[in-house]
Amino acid sequence: MTKEIxxxxxxxxxxxxxxxxxELRAMYGEAVDELAKTVQIAGFRKGKVPRSVIExxxxxxxxxxxxxxxxxxxxxxxxGDKSFPPENLxxxxxxxxxxxxxxxxxxxxxxxxxxxxxxxxxxxxxxWKGFTTEVPDVKVEDADVDRELEIIRERNSTVxxxxxxxxxxxxxxxxxxxxxxxxxxxxIAGSERDGFVFPLVSPTxxxxxxxxxxxxxxxxxxxxxxxxxxxxxxxxPPERKAEKRSTIVKVTAIKEKKLPELDDDxxxxxxxxxxxxxxxxxxxRENLNDRLENHLWKxxxxxxxExxxxxxxxxxxxxxxxxEIESRIAKLAREVxxxxxxxxxxxxxxxxxxxTIVENxxxxxxxxxxxxxxxxxxxxDLKIEVTDDKREAxxxxxxxxxxxxxxxxxxxYYEQDDRLAYLDKFIATREVRELLLKENTVTVGAKQxxxxxVEGAE
Length: 458
Description:
Layout: E1 2-7, E2 12-19, H1 21-36, H2 51-80, E3 97-98, E4 111-118, E5 132-137, H3 142-155, E6 158-161, E7 173-181, E8 193-199, H4 211-214, E9 222-230, E10 242-258, H5 264-270, H6 277-311, H7 318-335, H8 340-348, H9 353-360, H10 362-381, H11 388-402, H12 406-414, H13 417-439, E11 441-447, H14 450-457
Parallel strand pairs: 5-11
Antiparallel strand pairs: 1-2, 2-4, 3-4, 6-10, 7-8, 7-10, 9-10
C-alpha cells in the first residue's frame, strides 16, 4: 500500500492512498468471510454460506458495502499509526471525507482514492514584542456616577395608580386593550390583545408604534390611531410607497413611578454598610473604576494581539471557524433563556436570528481564534511551566474572590485531571498575557465617553 500526504490551503490535508490489487483482493476476501459468519440465506446454516452464494445473492450492494468498509478501515489504520505526522491529524471537528467520487470496486486493478480533512493550522510566532498601539483615554466622570445613581433610584422606586382623571405621562406604566383595524374600521380577527402592559419611555423614543399617541390619554379613554409606514419594497409603485395601519386602543390602567430622593435614606436602603449618600457614591465610583480597568486591560491585550496577528498571519480551517460560530450561537441561546432541549433546533435553523447576529461578527470570531492559537503557541515556545506554587497562588486569589475555602477549592481542582489541566491553562495563559503587555507599548489616545467605551467592549 502506498500513501501520500499533501498539505493544502486553509490547513486542509489530502491523503492519497493506493491499495495494490493483491492486497485489495485479500481485504475483500476477509470482509466477505466475516460477513459469512452472520448472514442468513435460506437453505444454508448460519455461518456456512459459501462466498460465491453470498456474492451472487448480494451483488452490487455487497461490493459497495465492502468497499466502504475497506476505505474506512484503511484510513482509520493510517491515522492510528504512531508514525503518522501528528501535525497532520484531523482536528476534533473535522472528519475525513472522500474527495470526489469513490471508484467502483474492481478486483482486477489497484484501488486509488483520496480523503480530505482539516488539520491544526501551521504557523510560527516569530515577532511578538516591540509593537506600539493605543487605547482611548477614558475616565469615570461625575456624570457616570449620577447615571448609576438614577439606575439605583429606578430599582428602588415604587409604583402606584395615578389619580382618576390624570393623563398618562412619559415614564408611566400603562395597560391597554388594543386591536388592529381593517380598511372598513372592523377589528381584524386574531389581532386583539387585552391587558397589554408597557412603559411610556418617551414620545420621541417609542417602544411600540402607537406609544406616542397614548401619552396624554386617561384611564377608560379609547382612541383610534392611524399612521403611515414606508413599504419595504423597492419595486413598489409610487402610490404604494407607504401603507396605513389603524389600531383601536383603550387605556385600562395608568401607574406612575415614584422615585426615592437622593439622600442618606436611599443609601441606607441600598446596603446596611452605607450611612450616607457620599458612601454610596464612593462605592459606585470604585465599582465603575474596577469595571473600566478590566475593560481597558482587555482592550490593551486585544490591541497588542491584533498587531501580532497582522505580523504572524494564521490561515484558519473553515471547520474550526464553523465550530466556533456554532458554539457562540448556542451560548447566545442559553443567555436569552432558550431551554437546552431546544438549542439543537436553533442550531439547525440556518435562518435563525441568532445565527445572523453571530455570522455578522465572523471577523471577530476569526480574530478570537487566531489570538487563542497565538497565546497557546507562545506558552510552548517560551516553555512556560505551571508549578505547584503558581497553582496555589492562583487558587488563593480564587478563594478570596469567591469567598470559598482554600483547601476545598484546591481539592476540587486536584481531584480530576481535566480540572487541573484547565487551571494550568488559565495560569499559563495569564502569564503569557502579562508578558505581552510588558513587552509591548500601549499609549493613550483620544478621549472617549465611559458609557460608550464600556458598551462597545461588551
